[in-house]
Automatic annotation (TrEMBL):
<protein>
    <submittedName>
        <fullName>Uncharacterized protein</fullName>
    </submittedName>
</protein>
Length: 80
């Protein structure tokens, strides 16, 4: 009986991992050759996660008056 319970727990764990990996894959972005710069920025600014790096860069875009500025509205086409 104990072996059955261990196998059942393992199966549930694998299903959970697959579900979490699928969810993570839906938000994944490939930044290609910019990856070393991304990591350097993350370390230089002391940011704890990739999400924090993304928010930092978006905030910089807003401060510099880029197309993603909330005051101009946001459009996926880049046209406000």
């Amino acid at each position: 009986v104990l072996i059955y319970l261990e196998e059942d727990t393992s199966c549930k764990g694998k299903k959970k991992l697959r579900r979490l990996d699928k969810a993570r894959g839906q938000t994944r972005v490939n930044i290609g050759t910019a990856f070393p710069r991304w990591r350097h920025l993350k370390e230089a600014k002391g940011l704890q996660s990739d999400a924090m790096v993304a928010l930092f860069l978006l905030d910089r875009c807003v401060l510099l008056g880029g197309v993603c500025s909330p005051s101009r509205g946001f459009s996926l086409t880049g046209k406000c």
